[in-house]
UniProtKB/TrEMBL annotation:
GO molecular function, one term: transmembrane transporter activity
Subcellular localization(s) per the UniProt record: Cell membrane
Organism: Kribbella voronezhensis
Domain Major facilitator superfamily (MFS) profile: residue ranges: 23-479
Keyword Signal listed: no
Primary location group: membrane
Signal peptide stretch: none
Membrane-spanning parts: 21-47, 59-77, 89-108, 114-139, 151-170, 176-198, 210-230, 242-260, 281-303, 315-334, 346-364, 370-395, 407-432, 452-474
Protein name per the record: EmrB/QacA subfamily drug resistance transporter
Any single Pfam family the record assigns to this protein: MFS_1
Any Gene Ontology CC annotation: plasma membrane
Length: 498
């Protein structure tokens, strides 16, 4: 994360200028479009089901088709950015995502919509996988990098709650087709600005990292793994023969991939990057925190809808405090905290606040009051996320070499995506099982439903608490960025004097 004397002297991005910040906003616009898509579509699912005649089981493929392509290709897309140029991959992803969005909006059949959603996932992976790597290259100086990562972390973390509001407005005011059509102007403008404002990077070239077998193995492993989580595990259970068989296939593919990367002359994923405790720990924390947070946003929305009777627009408005608090901290204060205390301590503090918020959510009753039982929880989640995630993103890139920045960016995205899918499947399954067992025992429907949600909130808290343990034991304490910046400046001055 911290700039070296060499990077300050040789990196074009280090020369300063307003154009770098404009480039950051372009990158964040692309990320926001990708993040919004997930929650916008979730809000519109009932309208899509009514219009195209999906069954309850087949409707899940509107989401799953996207998740399988997105989660399966993130790691490969990040490495392709290192090899072919990150701006090239970013713009290509925007073009694919935008074109697929138009096809989704025009879809008049289930098959066309599901196929277009898969292509959308491909575009989303290409776009988002390289963004963090581009940011750390654009902003090598510690203070600016911390601030830039804070902006990125806000967009990546809080965009989902904005999507709830946008989805409700578009679906109710016009129709579900417009949740996809709205991506057309955003995607076109973002792609044009990216070409104009982001300096083209050459990349290492395919000769430096061509590893077709490795690419096939990791992409297949991730796609099969995500499919296993979102389909048979969620519908048939974790002990079903089909779930176990596909899980074993995923592990086999991963094992073959590791063997390949350990022996390949030019591996797709050099295993040396995992020697960094901070990178390894940050990715584990990303997976665990995403498991808890994503599942809770989904199940929390169901609590508001099915227990408290909120409509789609009201749910979006209910989650706005999380977005506001997270945005204020990420953009205004996260950089100051990282500069003052280093990234590790703010990250741990943020994770603890999230655990406290999830613990409070287990007390939300059937006749809950938003201002008493929900708002404090969402405020704590926003506070914790706003403190934690910018520091976590910075730590995930702290020890990464410039030529591996795209790979590390794709890796942290992959861990978040797989963690979110796994967490949602586990929490939703356990919540539903608890509700069904209580209902069968004669408990009133709303009481049984609420108890199921309480169980999922408690388990999510335990998952995030495990992330706190990893942060305290595995992550290496880093000196505050302010000290690193001062040291770097001293080195530059000494070299200039020499």
């Amino acid at each position: 994360m911290y700039a070296t004397t060499e990077s300050l002297a040789t990196t074009p991005a280090a020369q300063g200028g307003r154009s770098r910040w404009l480039a950051l906003y372009v990158l964040c616009a692309g990320m926001l479009m990708i993040v919004l898509d997930v929650t916008v579509v979730n809000v519109a699912l009932p309208a899509i089901q009514d219009d195209l005649g999906f069954t309850s089981s087949s409707l899940a493929w509107v989401v799953n088709a996207y998740l399988i392509a997105f989660g399966g290709l993130l790691l490969l897309a990040g490495r392709l950015g290192d090899l072919l140029g990150r701006r090239n991959i970013f713009v290509s992803g925007l073009v694919v995502f935008t074109a697929a969005s138009v096809l989704c909006g025009l879809a008049e059949s289930q098959e066309v919509l599901v196929a277009a959603r898969f292509v959308q996932g491909v575009g989303g992976a290409l776009t988002s996988a390289v963004i963090l790597g581009m940011i750390v290259t654009l902003f090598p100086e510690p203070r600016e990098q911390a601030k830039a990562i804070g902006v990125y972390a806000f967009v990546a973390s809080a965009g989902g709650s904005i999507g709830l509001l946008a989805g409700g407005v578009l679906t109710q005011a016009i129709n579900w087709h417009w949740i996809f059509f709205v991506n057309l102007p955003i995607g076109v403008v973002t792609a044009v600005l990216a070409v104009k404002l982001i300096e083209k990077d050459k990349g290492l070239g395919m000769g430096r990292g061509t590893d077709v077998p490795g690419a096939v193995l990791i992409t297949a492993a991730l796609m099969v793994g995500v499919f296993t989580i979102v389909k048979p595990a969620a519908e048939l259970g974790w002990t079903a023969p089909r779930t176990i068989a596909l899980g074993l296939l995923t592990l086999t593919l991963l094992a073959c991939f590791i063997v390949r990367e350990a022996t390949a002359a030019n591996p797709l994923v050099p295993l040396r990057i995992f020697k960094s405790r901070n990178l390894t720990g940050a990715n584990l924390i990303q997976a665990l925190s995403a498991s808890g947070m994503f599942g809770i946003f989904f199940l929390g929305s169901l609590y508001l809808q099915r227990v408290l009777g909120y409509n789609a627009l009201e749910i979006g408005l209910a989650f706005l405090p999380t977005t506001v608090v997270m945005g204020l901290l990420s953009v205004r204060y996260s950089e100051k905290l990282v500069m003052r205390f280093g990234p590790r301590r703010p990250m741990i503090a943020g994770l603890v606040l999230i655990v406290v918020g999830l613990a409070l959510f287990t007390q939300a009753p059937v006749n809950g009051n938003y201002f008493i039982h929900v708002l404090p929880v969402l405020a704590l989640l926003g506070l914790g996320g706003g403190i934690c995630f910018p520091a976590l993103m910075g730590l995930s890139m702290a020890d990464v070499k410039p030529e591996d920045a795209g790979l590390a960016s794709g890796l942290i995205g992959t861990m978040g995506e797989v963690g979110a899918a796994l967490g949602l499947a586990v929490l939703a399954t356990l919540s539903a099982t608890r509700t069904e067992s209580l209902a069968a025992a004669g408990k009133p429907a709303l009481d049984a439903l609420t108890s199921g949600f309480h169980l999922s909130f408690a388990i999510a808290g335990v998952i995030v608490a495990a992330a706190v343990v990893i942060a305290c034991t595995l992550m290496r304490p880093a000196r505050p960025a302010a000290d690193a910046a001062a040291a770097s400046q001293t080195e530059v001055e000494e070299l200039a004097a020499a």
